[in-house]
Amino acid sequence: MNGLSPRMAEAVSWYIFAPIEPAHVITMGSRLVHDLGVAGDDWDEFEAVLDEAYGTRFVVPRGFIPPEISNDSYRVAAAHGWLARRYPRVREWHRSRIRCPELTLEQLERMIVGG
Q1: pTM for this structure?
Q2: Rounded CA gap, 58 and 77, in Å?
Q3: pLDDT in tens, the chain (115 residues)
C-alpha cells in the first residue's frame, strides 16, 4: 500500500481487497473497479468503511460504481474467477471490457474531502 494517505490506508486496511491482478500493489492511483474489483454490494461495504475512516458521509456518482446486476459487475467477477487466475490473458480480456468510468483512490479521496 505505497503512497496511500493515512485515512485511505486506514480504510484499505479495514476492507480486505482482492485486487483483480494478484501482484497489484495498492496505491492512490489504483482504480476502484478496474484494479481492485469493487462493484455492486462490495462498494456498499467499502463505502461504510470510508465513512468511518473519514468521519463523514459523501456521495459518489453511481456511474462510477456498477450495480450488482450489470455487465461490468459480471466482468469484475469473471476477472476474479478461477479461469482468470489460471490464465492472465483471460483476466485482462475481461478487465479490458469494463465500461464504467475509471475512479482512482486519489480521485475518490478528493470527492470525500471536497478538494
Answers
A1: 0.87
A2: 26
A3: 568 999 998 898 888 777 777 778 899 999 999 988 899 888 999 999 999 999 988 888 879 999 999 999 999 999 988 999 899 999 999 999 999 999 999 999 999 998 5
